[in-house]
Amino acid sequence: DLIAKEKFVTRVLTPNEQLVFSKLAKRRRIEYLAGRWTAKEAFSKAWGTGIGKLGFQDIEVLNNQYGKPYFAKLPPFDGTASLSLSHSETTVVAFVIIQRTTDK
I want to staple 59 with a disulfide (CB 3.0 to 4.6 A). Which of 40, 64, 90, 103 is the partner? Predict the structure, then answer.
């Protein structure tokens, strides 16, 4: 059980995400963790590096007052990143769109 493995939780979730995670009902925790992991993987793929050059702690996903997920922390780059997450009982899908403000 991934939830029982605190090392995995602390590797994937930033301290702010861990705070949210700790307040969730047990049944919601796996969905939250899977959603954050998927969003971070999707961003790193859109960025062009994958997880490795970017770490899970370099990216933070929080929710606004309406529940919409957004990137609260990203590695520095010229642009914006949009995020959409969708959950089912067994699947999480994340879409990330990166828009660069300068051509390089």
Answer: 40
Residue 64: which residues within 8 A CB-CB, separation 6 or more? 70
Distance of CA 74 to the CA centre of its chain: 10
Mean pLDDT of the chain: 89
Q: Are 53 and 60 in contact (CB under 8 A)?
A: no
SS3 95: strand
Q: What is the pTM of this model?
A: 0.88
- Cα(9)–Cα(77) distance, integer angstroms: 26
> Catalytic positions, please?
45, 87
Degrees, nearest 5: CA angle 34-40-42 = 100
